[in-house]
Amino acid sequence: MGVMNKMRESTAAILWILVIAFGGIWVFTDSGAMDVIGRSNALNVATVDGEAIEREQFQNLLNNYIQQAQQNGQEVTQAMRDQYSDLVFNALIERKLREREMKKLGIQVTDQEVIDMVFGATPDPIILQSFSDGKGGINRTALKNFWENAERRPQVLQIQDYLREKRAQEKLDKLLEATVRISDADVVEEYLRRNQTYSAEYIALRYADIQDKSVTISDAELRSYYNENKEEFKRKKSYSFLFAAKQTTATPADSARVRNELGALRESFANAKDYRSFFTQNNSMAPFDSTYRDKSQFGPVLANTLFANPAVGTVVGPIADAGAFHLVKILGVKSDPAYTARASHILVEQEAKAKELMAQLQAGGDFAALAKANSKDSGSGQNGGDLGEAPTANYVPEFRKAVETAPLNQLVGPVKTQFGYHIIKVATRTATTSSKIQVANFMRSIDVGAEAVDRIRKSMEDFQYFATEANDFRAEAKKQKLQVQNTSVEEGANTIPLLGPSRAIMNFLAKAKPNQISDVVELDDKMVVVQLIEGKPEGYKSVEELKTVLEPRARNEKKKKMLEERFRTAMTKNGFGNGLAQALKTNVNTATDLTYNNALIQTLGREAKFVGALSALKPGQSSGIIVGENGVYVVKLTGKGNFNASTMKPDEKAEIVQTLRQQGLQQVKTRWMEQLREKAEIEDFRSNFNL
Question: pLDDT tens digits, residue range 61-112?
Fold first, then answer.
């Protein structure tokens, strides 16, 4: 009974596993609907070269995304609906294009292949996950019973469709992957990019050192810069419009309403036997979570209340905290050991460098001096690596474990974390205990009541009506004491300046005529009425429109030429060295342990060209003048790490090959789909349905 009952109860969960596993499309898609061609656009949400994507199919998918979010305790705002709409739309378009191309390529999946993915020696992971025997294997009896149960036939067909699509996609990926070429030179280049270190001397002049007011830009120079970079200033069709809005924010009456709602639930909440079901049935804004949590994981009001004297069975609330009201029952209390420690560390990019420093320290090197000279953590590095006294819970897990277990005043390392390699020394460590509690935290957000929302909507509808009748948006807004604002947006933009995302407003702008006034549009936190001023066709933005953008960029370009000329004159007389630095009234700087992934240069900031130039030099050789992002400079290579193809380990090479192949495949797939979309005639009819 157990397995089959569980399967019957969790059918929805299995289906959502499929959704997540394959882009959220297959499970809820009727494959027959994809073959409909030439239906009336009244029924279609899009067409791809005349092939229809039906509104019903789109709406079903969109509804399922929304329902799943709501079941997870999320409040689905209008902005989220718009995001889900774009997600579903693009997924259906790409699926249509992909299916068509796979048909051209002759990619097919046989029934036997699908059967093998279910009942074969190595079933698909979705089958293993859904029919696990709890021991890492598969419960084949449960699988067979499920598969042969007539009542489960619709779910079986959906799983078959998913597996067939997945196998077809795998075959397509193999064809695309065959176009990816990873040469030995590519592997060595990536290995050196990750590992090769460089030391250098450099002389630099920063653009920021020239005051803006000392560099004047004429109209001719501004226009010249514009003409040289005109392609950057292309614009899509755009819309300028006015809008007036009223906030739909919560009032004291809304707070009182939510407090009373939770007060009415308090007794049944305190006596509940199944909190997971209680939360679902009574619409908690977040699902039940049985995780033990410490004081820092609660809002300030709840934290102080719950941890004052935590005892199992205590019920508090309704209590307001962090924009919501809470009913909380303490289900469990425990104490975990906690530590406060004073530790020092030296953080470097490469393990080899960490081992080198470790050897120096073990030979009597000064920890503080080596930290100042080498640590990537500039904050602690200036203090000799000292991190001060702090709770170890503040640190990432690997570092925390080392600090909590290291013998006092002894070196530990290298310890690898997400930041690099650490050498650690712990001076003091104090053990304490930290209380954690397990709670049922039922909550509801303090939202605007339905009556208030209706009142605001009615007010904005009145404004819209009278503004339209009088054909005077501003005058009517003034009568209604509404602020009128002006903004603009490009066609296809995901968000509107000052307003945020709104498909309804974008749909209105696409169809409206100048001076037309929209209906009331409800956003997440306000009601809005819009008046279109003008629609500008696709083309180039004008110099006048871009003046505030062009002036600083043209000024920076002029600074580059000024500094480049100063460098050129000085280098002609002095070459690289102290003479050049003196002529430019600056200093010769040094940089150590630079890599492609760590190109942060003191005085210059992040400069991609800096390490690129060093990689092309031999020790002792200097570069020509480099015009960088933040300044003009010349570099001299003083040393580099001993990394080359022969120092690459086999496992490193295999990992790099795999990474480059995956990156290459993803790039090929992305470009391939972009090309398919560019060639296809795609029509979007969502605005007809306000989707």
Answer: 888 888 777 766 667 777 788 888 888 888 899 989 998 999 998 999 999 9
Q: How crowded is the C-beta side of 66, counted as CA atoms within 13 Å?
A: 18
CA–centroid distance for 368 within its chain: 38
Torsion angles phi and psi, residue 575, rounded to 5: 65, -165
Query: Domain span at residue 532?
Result: 237-249+449-537
First vs last C-alpha separation in the chain = 44
Q: Looking at the chain, how many residues does it have?
A: 691
* Any domain includes 431: yes
Q: How many CB atoms lie within 10 A of CB 654?
A: 11
* CA angle (470 as vertex; 467, 475 as ends), nearest 5: 60
Contacts of 241 (CB under 8 A, 6+ apart): 486, 487, 488, 509, 530, 531, 532, 533
- Residue range 604-622, pLDDT digits in tens: 888 889 999 999 999 999 9
Q: Which DSSP helix (H) or strand (E) runs through 617?
A: none
Asked if 200 and 641 count as a contact pair (C-beta separation under 8 A), the reply is no
Which range among 19-28, 335-344, 625-634 shows the weakest confidence by mean pLDDT?
Answer: 19-28
Is residue 343 domain-shared with residue 290, that is, in the same domain?
A: yes
Q: How far apart are CA 434 and CA 336, in angstroms?
A: 5
Last residue of a domain, one of 501, 518, 537: 537
Cβ–Cβ < 8 Å for 238, 506: no
What are the structure tokens assigned to 116, written together?
């093998």
CATH (domain of 359): 3.10.50.40
Our count of domains for the chain comes to 4
In a domain, 386, yes or no: yes
Contact 480, 459 (CB under 8 A): yes
- Domain termination site, one of 447, 467, 497: 447
Please check whether residues 338 and 256 belong to one and the same domain. Answer: yes
Distances (CA, A) of 600 to 120, 514, 594, 638: 53, 51, 8, 17
Quote the CA–CA distance of 589 and 636 in Å, as a whole number: 10
Q: How far is CA 424 from CA 337, 388, 417, 625, in A?
A: 21, 13, 12, 41
Strand arrangement of the beta sheet that strand 631-640 belongs to: 589-594, 198-206, 631-640, 626-627
Contact of 500 with 523, CB cutoff 8 Å: yes
pTM higher than the cut 0.70: no
Instruction: Residue 604: name the closest of 201, 207, 200 by CA.
Output: 207
